[in-house]
Amino acid sequence: MKRVMTCLLLIFCFCGLCGCKKNAEEKKVETEADFVYPTDDISLFCLDEEGNLYAYKKDTGSIGVFDKDGVQIKNIQVAEKEYFTLCYGNGVLYALIAGDGDAMYVNGVCLVEISQEDGSLKTLYENPNAYAAHNLTYGAGRLFFVEREPVETEKSNMLSDLAGRYTYAGERLMSFSLESGRAEELLIDRIKAFTEKDEKTLFVYAYDFDCGKYYFATYEPETGVMGQKSYVGEYFNVFLEDFAYDEENDKLLREEVLKTVLVAMDPAEIENQSSFYNVDGVLGGIGLCCQRGRSYFLLNSKVHRIKNDNYIKEYEPLRIYYNTHVFEIPEGTGFEINMVKVDDETMAMSMMAGDSDYDFLLLSTDSPVAEQIRRVGAYEPLNKVEGVEIYLQNSFEFMKEAATDTNGAVWMLPCDISCDVLVYNPELCKEYGVDLDTKYSNETLYQLQKALEKAEENGNPAYYSYHFKSEYNRLMNMYLADYAVVNGVASFDTPLFRKYSEWYKTERDSSNDNVYRYSYMNPGASAPYLGATEEEVAAYFKEYFSQVAVAATEKKTLSQEYSVSVDGGSYGFLDYDFFSAKPMPSLEEDKQGENLADAYILVVNPKSAHLEEAKEFLTVLTERLIGEESIYRTRVLTGEYNALERKVHEIYGNSRIVFSYPDDVFWKEYLNYLNGEKSLDEVIPELERKLNLYLKE
Amino acid sequence: MLETEAGEQIFRGKVGIAMKKYLLKCRLLLIPSILGVAVFYVLPYLRVIYYSLIENQFSRRFVGLQNYKTVLQNEYFRLALKNSLLLILIAVPVLVAAAFLLSLLLLKMKGYWKLLRIAFIFPMLVPTASVVVVWRTLFDAGESVWPVYLLFIYKNIGLLIILLSAAFSTLDGEVYEAARLDGAHGFALHRKITLPLISPTLLFTVLIGVVYSFKVFRESYLYFGTSYPPDHSYTLQYYMNNHFYKLNYQNLASGAVLTSLIVAVIVVVGVRLQKKFTI
After folding, report:
1. Is the ipTM value over 0.85, yes or no?
2. Residue B277 near chain A (CB below 8 Å)
């Protein structure tokens, strides 16, 4: 009886402990809406101890004081100076400003106290030899800041380390004592920036010349003791001038201006970082503050406030094995994502071995591994993952079909699609004797190509990006997808296959030029940006694009590469109504079928050690993708789009995903023909034999 | 001590204990080898059998012999099986016969000609890739299966010659003298004396040849340069290799188990024959 009671007691205690542990792990996060202070054109800001915002407007020369709810308490008119940074400490407002020098470059730096009554400035410290300053912070009766003095090129070269992406720019970490009124340099080698950790400790960001890496470390100014250095990784954006410390979450925060995200880093292990907040706009790049678990930053010249808890996730990093880097995982999901590039074989072996080291596979559907994953069931079904069904409903129908296995399981998430689209200027093409609106086929495109090449020899300025030689991959893939297998049997001995093979080989053998010979397309490099007005730049691009006759484009070309952003204006194919678009022509003129598309897919590892986190990441990702409407992916468009964009959307929507065969089955043998080693009559039976073997073994 | 019955019993008891201790030591010393065989051969083989009985490694649904049925019904598995058996039925006898004749010839050589036997070891030492390069210049890849058969014979004849030469060296010359005195000469001498005496080794070389015929994949793959060789050379190894790359582990496992059963049957039959013909 005693034993029974003891056992029962132990079981009860054990259950209780498990429950307690679980409760301890469940950190309740109170959501708080993001807040935007109702004042714009802000160039600098700081916070006082109560959380009131002091925002400096350069054009009015004033500092507005706002409470937590954005209600303006005060407006301080300050002297017209160049202000580098602001800070509030012990009831006093401080600033670093440029000196009164009238040199073009080095005007000195002053540390001033700003009167909150009349905005007058009281100089506390001045360095006439400095040219810039940043990172002003108050702690334990001292002010800390980084100032920069000019340095001779020779000295800069000597102290710099280009291999480690470090350039010495004359930075010095200064400490100003309010009591003694004296400033002294804190000797930290190759300092770049710092932030306050607490009253007595700073976090510094500097370069370790011996290791050849940047690092973060704590530093106590009073004792001069530096904590353990945490080095940054290979892909860290080292050009960092401003960062902040979130005491509540124990994270260092910084802005990734180019990626428009906020990033949280583990101070002890800097390489553990995640972009937790995505912004739509231009980040200020400076002035990032953190107070009581909230981040304050400049976005589109307005001060924004967010509660970090709402976005920073305390999950283990997720690892993605990828073999194609065309799809960029969106930033700002709150998850730390480690991307590891592997080849097809490693990817397949990891999958089949039940490796739990990775959480996702990111690959393209034209990789043979993609089809194998579906066939062998090496995936975690996503049917019950929140957001996936809605995302698939929101995407093109064919994406949903491709994502669904024969047993109804959703085996992958198609994050992005790319297919070829022909963009052309009908009127310009007619000038070269080809009317693509009336007659559209590979033959007419070829005719147009020849006409443009001939005209080019005579100095014709028309631009084009289409060449039959670069089409053979697409044409053969089309044949493989639609014609190569008839009733389960390989079929290459057809007039269609022979026609295109012979045509391509003739074209390939006849030309002495580079295979990808086509006229110069990219306007970005030669565009007159400097000193030009927005109207002039727009006119330049319009003139340029009006001379483009035809271009075989993929999504990257349509949306990014040739879409040049200048001063907020974007110039690309889709911006001009003199273009039309069509899907790439089918092999048979009178049978315009569906365009072939490649999808970039995410597959969840069923053996992942972080399966729940991986699913949660998918939920966040699908939410993000649904929110970003795209003519290349979204089924029903709700935004405003021009006719050409809608046409491209229609073309994309009328596509299908086809999985490819291994190279050994078709391309290896076919190349023997293209290289002249075998005749078509020798190659065709081999192709049929191999494909039959592949399909039926 | 042995003079009395009691003494004898004591003696036997002591011997028994000593024997038991000895056997225990033997068993303990065998454990590392057994463990190694178990971990690297037995357990993986059991795992392969398990894979052959499930739908896939992810769902792990038991499907019984369905995978075997699929494999046996597959025309290309049957083609591979046929080609593998043809390799055994044609190339192995040729290999053994050639090795036998060459061993006999080398036996009769005297002086420096004896060093010629070393030359037959070279094929075993030369990397297969190098041999294939030469083969591709000599033969036209794809037209016939004989280049692969010759490659198999070329690579393995050295080992068989060593085995048979060792067997010949154990033969007692007096037996031959006696046979000659009885009037036996030439072929009759070898048919009546040599073959029966070396039959265990001969059967062993046949078994080696059969087992090695299942390992000829590397040579064939390099020779044809593709995972999809001409039909006449498409063997069981290609079938399994291609399914490995297709990640179809169930077909691979079923094919492997079937192949191992075939090899096991051949080896068992061979061993029984060897015992029957051993003098």
Report:
1. no
2. no
Helix and strand numbers, DSSP H then E, in chain A: 16, 39
Choices 3.40.630, 3.30.457, 3.30.730, 3.40.190: CATH for A421-587 = 3.40.190
Report whether B210 contacts B263 (CB < 8 A).
yes
Q: Which CATH number fits domain A324-418+598-657: 3.30.450.180, 3.40.605.10, 3.40.190.10, 3.30.365.10?
A: 3.40.190.10
H/E element holding A456?
helix A442-457
User: B241: which DSSP letter?
Assistant: H
Q: Which CATH superfamily is domain A78-235 in?
A: YVTN repeat-like/Quinoprotein amine dehydrogenase (2.130.10.10)
3-state DSSP call for residue B7?
A: helix
CA angle A175, A176, A182 (to 5 degrees): 120
- Tokens of residue A292, six digits: 């009581």
CA distance to partner chain A, nearest, from residue B76 (Å):
5
Q: Using the beta-carbon criterion (under 8 Å), do B56 and A376 form an inter-chain contact?
A: yes
CB B80 within 8 Å of CB B232: no
Residue range A337-346: mean pLDDT, rounded: 87
Q: What single-letter DSSP state applies at residue A685? A: H
Task: Return the number of other C-beta atoms located less than 10 Å from residue A347's C-beta.
Answer: 25
Q: Are A527 and A564 in contact (CB under 8 A)?
A: yes
Q: Strand, coil or helix: what is B105?
A: helix
Surface of B (37-76) touching A: CB under 8 A? 55-59, 74-76
Residues of A (554-613) whose Cβ lies below 8 Å from B:
606
Chain segment B18-37, per-residue pLDDT in tens: 888 899 999 999 999 999 99
B122-153: b or e for each residue (b if 16 or more CB lie within 10 Å)?
Answer: ebeeeebeebbeebeeebebbeebebbbbbbb
Q: Where are the domains of chain A?
A: 78-235, 324-418+598-657, 421-587, 667-696
Taking a C-beta distance cutoff of 8 angstroms, is the pair A412, A379 a contact?
yes
- For position B261, what pLDDT does the model report? 93
CA nearest A228: which of A212, A208, A248, A242?
A: A208
Inter-chain residue contact A690 with B228, CB threshold 8 Å: yes
Q: Catalogue all structural domains in chain B, each as residue range(s) with its CATH number.
A: 66-277 (1.10.3720.10)
Distance CA A67, CA A53 (A): 6
CA B204 to mean position of chain CA atoms: 8
Residues of B with Cβ-Cβ distance to A606 under 8 angstroms: 58
Residue A275 has pLDDT above 90, yes or no: no
Would you call B56 and A606 a contact, using CB atoms and an 8 Å cutoff?
no
Q: What is the pLDDT of residues A495-542, one digit of tens each?
A: 999 999 998 888 877 765 554 545 666 666 566 666 777 788 888 888
Does B243 sit within 8 Å of A348, measured CB to CB?
no
Asked, colleague to colleague, whether A324-418+598-657 and A421-587 share their fold, the answer is: yes
Asked if B184 and B119 touch (Cβ cutoff 8 Å), the reply is no
Cα separation of the two ends of chain A: 66
Residue A175's beta-bridge partner residues?
Answer: A144, A184
| Spatial CA neighbour of A522 closest among A572, A486, A481 | A572
Nearest to A377 among B56, B74, B243 (CB): B56
Please give the radius of gyration of chain A, using alpha carbons only, rounded to the nearest integer. 31
